[in-house]
Specification:
The complex is a heterodimer of chains A (377) and B (180). With 377 residues, chain A is mostly beta strands. Chain A has five helices and 18 strands. Chain B has 180 residues and is of the alpha+beta class. Chain B has one domain (39-178). Chain B has a five-stranded mixed β-barrel with strand order 4-5-6-8-7. In chain B, a hairpin with a 5-residue loop joins strand 4 (105-120) and strand 5. Chain B is globular. Chain B starts with a helix and ends with a strand. Classes of the chains: A mainly beta (377), B alpha+beta (180). At the A-B interface, helix 1, strand 1, strand 3, strand 4 and strand 6 of A face helix 1, helix 2 and strand 2 of B.
């Protein structure tokens, strides 16, 4: 980022913070008789030490200490029913600036809201709720990196609501479609999102997610995405992408068990592969299962501290199926086993340590040590 | 060099902030202050309240059972406010949040503030009756607190007890203010 751009970002950020504090002290009467003009801030961040750095299968690739994410967000309420949400991600110590989300939310009823703007896609358990203290590992699950491109945001509009006395919730959006030419053999969907920046909208997509909680401690969810993905790229032809996912979580007596599965089907993968000059999977899929236990039993003691031991196994393949005439990359098939500990002195701050064991279809293996500290507010 | 750039950024931010709040502090009449709501329910929360999606979830939970109340979510509480006299479905408001299973959220404590009168039943029990509705709650009123009788309007701030169990709710008075 240029120095001028960085200074502008800093200036605007400081202006928003100061104006927000001023605004907090001067609530005005809204059209509905209540207060309006309320501004609230939130944010999160995390610093990582990776030995060796991520995105490599080479033990000698070097280590990395990265202030991976620092996100500032705010919510401005015009009235009881209308608000604007926004988040800016200063990724890798502000080397990358990203509009994480920004949308208008208008309550159509007490349990149904219209959203318009740059939206976090309701796919998978983590994409919308991705604050780092919410997961125990230093890095996010890799299935939600290569198969579900967390953090995935697109420009669009749709609805967010609840039903069944709050035991079910749903989101359904129409958004700009993906650009399939950004899919890579090993990276899968990791870099396909437009991030809301001049999104190609020749193809649109529909996406939705339903979560239900049929019993105490149990949450089940399903996500679906379907859309055009060629964006009328000359010479590519029609390409569509379908993503289906399911996830579950069960928490009881200090235990936290969760799992997720996602499968991507790319119709037209042969043409995409020919266009990009490499194999792009016609199907990509992955899953993970995770078990965790809070030794300090925050749920029972009503204290603030937690000490969570966890283990997770992931299995994913970005070349699960490939188009005829193209060569499978054995390195696309990967398993990652992670074991670690996460200590929470308070519930919104965590210190993490874990060990990852990677293995791919080319019979390469790698062990990685990760240390991290994370917060949200 | 970095210090110079940062310093400029701070000044740019400060000036922009002053400009943005100037109309409030110097020009024209101040916006009218918000009226005191007829009733408020404060629900102290622990858990994930940070991001916009969390707050929407919590806001929808609170509003769904509130019978028209406005919900304001902050980092550690949600406040349901009623601007005009009306029935306050206290059990439902609390229950939606206390029994929620979808979100990583724990309800810690509940405070209730409302206008009404303090009375005594024929059985000798103390009650608090909401202004203009006839809706009443059992009230535990410590001897050290004022006990205005005879239908004197008061503003009561009370802890709500009994929401963790099935059955009726009881208000435990913390403050009683005469509104006459």
């Amino acid at each position: 980022m240029s120095g001028l751009k960085l200074r502008m970002v800093l200036g605007v950020t400081i202006a928003v913070l100061v104006a927000g504090l001023a605004g907090r002290t001067t609530p005005a009467r809204g059209a509905d008789g209540g207060e309006s003009g309320r501004l609230q801030f939130h944010g999160y961040g995390e610093i990582h030490y990776n030995n060796p750095k991520i995105d490599t299968m080479s033990p000698g690739a070097g280590n990395e200490l990265d202030f991976h994410r620092f996100v500032l967000g705010w919510e401005y309420e015009y009235s009881d029913k209308v608000r604007v949400e926004g988040e800016i991600d200063y990724e890798h110590a502000a080397r990358e600036l990203e509009l994480e989300e920004a949308y208008i939310e208008y309550d159509l009823s007490p349990t149904l809201a219209l959203r318009v703007g740059s939206l976090l896609m309701p796919v998978g358990p983590l994409n919308e709720f991705h604050e780092p203290p919410l997961y125990y590992s230093v890095e996010r699950p890799y299935v939600e990196r290569f198969i579900i491109p967390t953090t995935w945001q697109e420009n669009g509009a749709g609805f967010a609501g609840q039903a069944w006395r709050g035991k079910a919730s749903y989101r359904a959006y129409v958004t700009a479609g993906l650009d399939a030419t950004k899919i890579t053999s090993l990276g899968g969907l990791h870099d396909v999102s437009s991030k809301g920046s001049e999104s190609k909208a020749d193809d649109l997509a529909g996406v939705g997610r339903v979560e239900i909680a049929p019993a105490a401690g149990l949450k089940l969810a399903g996500s679906a995405y379907y859309g055009g993905a060629d964006q009328r790229t000359p010479g590519l032809g029609k390409v569509t992408m379908t993503l289906l996912g399911a996830d579950a979580r069960y928490r009881r007596a200090g235990f936290d068990l969760r799992g997720a599965y996602a499968r991507v089907a790319l119709d037209g993968a042969d043409r995409v592969s020919a266009f990009v000059g490499g194999t792009v999977g016609s199907a990509m899929q992955g899953f993970y299962v995770e078990a965790a236990y809070d030794v300090l039993r925050r749920d029972r003691t009503e204290g603030l501290r937690s000490l969570v031991l966890f283990g997770r196994h992931e299995d994913f393949d970005t070349n699960e199926e490939i188009p005829a005439g193209f060569v499978r990359d054995p390195a696309a098939e990967r398993t990652v086993s992670t074991a670690g500990v996460s200590y929470y002195p308070i519930e919104k701050v965590s210190f993490k340590a874990d060990l990852e064991h990677w293995k791919d279809g080319a019979d390469r293996k790698l062990n990685r040590v990760n240390l991290g500290a994370a917060f949200m507010f | 060099m970095i210090r110079v750039r940062l310093g400029r950024s701070v000044w740019i931010g400060a000036i922009a902030a002053i400009v943005s709040i100037a109309p409030i502090s110097t020009a024209g009449p101040r916006a009218p202050e918000a009226p005191t709501p007829f009733a408020r329910v404060y629900l102290a929360l622990r858990g994930c309240t940070s991001c916009s999606h969390c707050r929407t979830t919590i806001r929808q939970m609170a509003r769904a059972g509130s019978n028209g109340g406005q919900a304001r979510v902050s980092s550690d509480a949600v406040e349901v406010r009623y601007m005009k006299p009306g029935l306050v479905p206290l059990r439902d408001v609390i229950g939606r949040l206390a029994e929620n299973r979808l979100h990583d959220l724990t309800l810690i404590d509940v405070l209730f503030e409302a206008e009404g009168t303090i009375g005594t039943t024929s059985a000798g029990a103390t009650t608090f009756t909401l202004k203009g509705t006839g809706q009443s709650f059992p009230l535990n009123l410590a001897p050290s607190l004022p006990r205005p009788g005879g239908g004197t309007p008061v503003r009561l701030i009370a802890a709500v007890e009994g929401w963790r169990e099935k059955g009726g709710l009881t208000l435990v008075a913390r403050q009683v203010h005469s509104t006459t």
